[in-house]
Amino acid sequence: MSKTIEEYSLNAWPAVQTLTQDGWLLRFADGYTKRSNSINAIYKGIDDNLHTKIKNCEEIYSRSNLDVVFKITPFVPDALDQALDDRGYGIVDPSSVQTLESLTDIKVPFVKEVEISEYLNDKWLEIMTEMKGLSERNRLITQKLLSDSKLRQAYCILYDNAVPVACGLGVVEGDYVGLYDIVTDKHYRNKGYGEQVVLHILHWAKSIGATKSYILVVKGNAPAIQC
């Protein structure tokens, strides 16, 4: 994983508020998704008092009634892993970044009934909410996170005989399109609809100049990895 993709992913799925502490990004989004409610130590700071720095983060998140989550990437300070281990932290939701280095020969999707909007809309938000089983609170947080993005976005809905069966989000920055919230309705899974959403987003991204793609997946999520 490159630092460029890490930065792109932070921009693509933003937070409600971000604090900067000596090279660390402290992100807050009312508790919805670890990605938007975690500490990202991707820029090297002074790190002379690492435990003090960690304690400051813990106090800030505690005041916000949020779990203290550190996102560990190849770019964290060398001593951070050990320092967190010393403080009793454990590993939760290990994930990986899958990349496609060329969009030149991507397959053409065979499901043609699709709707793509470059702007967040109520239809996509409602379909995504239902398919993911989000609460009303988390739906509102998602709306807040995505509605003010300055990046090119593709909100994709896939249909089967006019019935929504899958949806997803693509976000373009630089040469890359990031894939987010690729979800299939529980009644239509194992039919390849998730891949069809991905292919439609990739073709859209290619049409506006993207040449590569990435997706962040939790390890063990075989369907997402296979896409």
TrEMBL record:
InterPro entries (UniProt xref): Acyl_CoA_acyltransferase, GNAT_dom, Rv0428c-like_C
GO molecular function: acyltransferase activity, transferring groups other than amino-acyl groups
UniProt superkingdom: Bacteria
N-acetyltransferase domain mapped to chain residues: 114-227
Protein name per UniProt: N-acetyltransferase domain-containing protein
Lineage: Bacteria, Bacillati, Bacillota, Bacilli, Bacillales
